[in-house]
Design a protein that fits this description.
alpha/beta; TIM Barrel; 8-stranded parallel β-barrel; Immunoglobulin-like
Length: 480
């Protein structure tokens, strides 16, 4: 008969063995293993420009550089820079007079509002005086130029609050005097930023969501196309006359997600814009992207750049973790080749708009960065800048993954898991890199795009864990 001590020891041994088995990574993750092999043939290149739409509570270069964006979208227009007719005489000067002598424009007004705006803020028109950023347009554009961040400027006659009141008579333009005012405003904006000053602003949007009456456009689709034609003439005149060596781009039609206006713009005014730019707030942006790409095929702009001028959310907080994780997935979708490909994009918006009823940004009061900020930053690290993209030979049903290669031969591996269960991933990236050191970043509820570990890659194989509802980014520094 076994002694009590022996029985106890046997039981403890069994218990320890059982616990070891239960705690084994293989036991936990046996059903949650993913094996991924990456192709060594580039699928294409990643999105070249990833940026944000401005917000009115702040403008801080440190935020832009920390986030890593290389483009910034700015709402221009009459409400911001010509709240009153700049010369006080409606319909004057005429287009021909400006072409003959640009100094017929009241440049004292433009210098004043761009340097010393009302209430001390270039955002005076959009919010409460004690909440908007205290700075001028000169500072914004000079900062962007010095930081090599590409500005994209929207020009509009009337904004979403239907201001300024004096411009309502040219919303839409009908008379010769109306068109004189519109042409003059577009010319003055482009000329002041690039000729009178040298801020390098070469991307222009004509209005904002003209198919959405809440954004201030008072005309029809046909009226909008006429607005684009006249604006295009003013922009073209500035460049051909004063900046003949510079290339500019006109973005259109700047419509809401799901709109069919792009197909008509491509058909009716293809010679008046060269960059297709739409808005898309879908959870999966690729469906509408493919539709727009389909419309572009066979048109004069079949091979033009496609931008998404607004995406993300204006209703859900960027502290919503599911939304934040989905931002990374949409960045991957936009870097896929073919009909999914997006050349440039601006998330809406970087900072809050400090006015009741308007949107929450990636950054709030006091510089507080929300979860979406860190998600976007992780995606930018891997994807921005036209890096060569590589996708798994067989797609995973559970993870969204991509690998990229930059100009310095660094390899990035990005994996997103939007499910509750965790995965152990074995990734074969030997076609891209066989040996090197990998730095692991995690985006999750516990780590906001933070370094969580490192390892040495051997024989091009990397094994790592991806927790539930998280993203992992591994940067491999090549070992010679």
């Amino acid at each position: 008969m076994l002694s009590k001590t022996t029985i106890l020891n046997l039981f403890l041994g069994f218990l320890i063995a059982l616990l070891l088995e239960l705690c084994s990574p293989i036991a936990i993750f046996a059903q949650n293993i993913e094996t991924i092999k990456f192709s060594g043939t580039p699928a294409g290149v990643s999105t070249r420009y990833i940026g944000a739409v401005e917000g009115n509570i702040n403008f801080d270069l440190k935020d832009l550089q920390d986030l890593g964006i290389n483009t910034y979208r700015i709402y221009g227009g009459m409400s911001r820079w010509e709240p009153e007719d700049d010369d006080g005489k409606y319909g004057w000067p005429e287009i021909s007079q400006i072409k003959a002598n640009p100094n017929t424009i009241n440049w004292a007004h433009w210098d004043q509002i761009m340097t010393d705006p009302p209430q001390g803020s270039d955002y005076w028109w959009s919010g409460e005086a004690d909440k908007v950023w205290p700075g001028n347009a000169r500072t914004i554009f000079n900062t962007l130029k010095q930081a090599n961040i590409r500005p994209v400027v929207s020009i509009r006659n009337v904004d979403s609050s239907w201001n300024p009141s004096w411009a309502l008579q040219l919303n839409p333009p009908r008379t010769k005097e109306d068109w004189n005012e519109w042409w003059e405003h577009v010319f003055a904006t482009v000329y002041w930023l690039n000729v009178r000053n040298d801020y390098g602003v070469d991307d222009w949007e004509i209005h904002n969501e003209p198919d959405n009456r809440e954004q201030g456009w008072g005309g029809t689709r046909a009226d909008y196309f006429e607005l684009v034609k006249v604006a295009s003439d003013a922009i073209d005149f500035v460049y051909k006359t004063y900046l003949p060596s510079r290339t500019y781009r006109i973005h259109g039609p700047k419509t809401v997600g799901g709109s069919n206006w792009p197909v008509y713009a491509l058909r009716e005014i293809p010679n008046y814009f060269d960059t297709v730019n739409v808005h898309n707030y879908d959870a999966d942006i690729s469906n509408y992207t493919r539709k727009v790409r389909g419309w572009m095929k066979g048109s004069a702009l079949a091979n033009s750049q496609l931008w998404v001028g607004e995406w993300g959310s204006y209703e859900i907080s960027y502290n919503d973790f599911s939304l934040a994780l989905n931002l990374i997935k949409n960045l991957i979708r936009g870097s896929q080749p073919g009909d999914n490909y997006i050349y440039g994009s601006h998330i809406f918006c970087l900072y809050d708009w400090g006015k009741p009823g308007l949107a929450e940004g990636l950054i709030g009061d006091g510089g507080k960065r929300r979860a979406g900020y860190y998600a976007l930053r992780m995606g930018i690290r891997a994807l921005q800048g036209g890096k060569s993209t590589f996708f798994p030979i067989a797609n995973s049903a559970n993870l969204m993954t991509v690998a990229t290669l930059d100009a310095s031969n660094h390899v990035y591996l990005l994996a997103v898991n939007d499910q509750a269960k965790s995965y152990t991933v074995t990734a074969d990236i030997s076609a891209l890199i066989k040996a090197g050191n990998g730095t692991v970043r995690e985006f999750s509820s516990r780590a906001m795009d933070a370094v969580v570990g490192s390892f040495r890659l051997k024989a091009g194989s990397a094994t790592f864990s991806v927790a539930g509802n998280s993203a992992i980014l591994i940067k491999f520094d090549r070992q010679n």
